[in-house]
Design goal:
33% of the residues lie in helices and 18% in strands. With 284 residues, the protein is α/β, with parallel strands linked by helices. The chain folds into two domains: 1-34, no CATH class; 41-282, Spore Coat Polysaccharide Biosynthesis Protein SpsA, Chain A, CATH 3.90.550.10. The strands form three sheets. The protein has a seven-stranded mixed beta sheet with strand order 5-4-3-6-8-7-11, with helices on both faces.
């Protein structure tokens, strides 16, 4: 390098902002480098109810999906008192994948998706957590792009979206209308600008998920998680002065099921979601 400037090396990724002098003497050039977190394990939570037809194949796809950043996986499955052979099949799955850590729970009484997630949540030990449905509506092939904003140190939570450009099966018109209404209402009260609040794929760092205690027993868990993330503060200062959770949204593929194929959510859950949106905006 000619002139009076000083040759410097670029800062190493993962370090804090480093002031250097380059080009013109005495003019500091600050490179703000986002620290990348050291993440080792992904907890994959799978609440299950009457999924004997799909469960084994879904878990196989989850296990075979390559994870970015060298992440290991911890698969936590909770059987929500299924009435079919789900529990018998679930118990056989760990032996098929001996290199993967599994945690299983069989609930004696059906309580709903939210309650099953709450039980799985309590068993999670990963640096990152993701929720996976036990059917083929959502594709684990989307894991890498869901995880990348967190691996890059840019996000604390990542929401998928079925409505921003990825392939999706054409399904019920009124379901999408209801989803749009619920997402809009949630956004109004949380001041987030999500496009798909009700999406299954939600990813959280341990710093975020360790502060959440799920209370909604059924599908109201989606607006509950959204509201709690929107209100949460992290780092120094905690709830009063900490920084807000950094939320990203990425498009995910969606192959929705018909009711004949096993879809479980109904209009009563939409009404309940409205109640949960308001409830968790103002309380815990």
């Amino acid at each position: 390098m000619s002139g009076s400037g000083t040759m410097v090396s670029p800062p190493v990724a993962g370090t804090a902002a480093v002031p250097v002098v380059a080009g013109v003497e005495g003019v500091p050039v600050v490179f703000n480098v986002t620290p990348k977190p050291d993440l080792k394990t992904l907890s994959i939570l799978i609440p299950v109810y009457n999924e004997e037809k799909y469960l084994a194949a879904v878990v196989k796809r989850v296990v075979e999906q390559r994870l970015p950043g060298g992440l290991a996986r911890e698969i936590i499955m909770v059987n929500d008192a299924s009435k079919d052979n789900t529990w018998a099949i679930m118990q056989q799955i760990p032996a098929l994948f001996p290199d993967v850590e599994f945690k299983l729970l069989n609930k004696p009484q059906n309580e709903g998706k939210g309650a099953a997630l709450r039980d799985a949540w309590a068993m999670a030990t990963g640096d990152v957590l993701i929720v996976q449905d036990a059917d083929f509506e959502y594709d684990p092939a989307d894991y890498p792009k869901l995880l990348q904003p967190i691996l890059d140190g840019k996000a604390d939570a990542v929401f998928g979206s079925r409505f921003i450009g990825e392939p999706h099966r054409i399904m019920y018109y009124w379901h999408q209308v209801a989803n749009n209404v619920l997402t809009t209402l949630s956004n109004m009260l949380t001041n987030l600008n999500l496009t798909d609040m009700e999406v299954c794929y939600k990813v959280f760092t341990r710093e975020v998920y360790s502060q959440i205690t799920i209370k909604s027993p059924r599908f109201g868990v989606e607006p509950e998680l959204t509201a709690k993330v929107a209100r949460m503060r992290l780092g120094v200062g905690g709830a009063s002065a900490g920084r807000k959770v950094r939320v990203y949204e990425v498009g995910v593929a969606y192959a929705g099921r018909t009711y004949e194929e096993g879809k479980k959510i109904g209009w009563k859950d939409a009404v309940s979601a409205i109640v949960q949106i308001v409830r968790f905006r103002f309380g815990d």
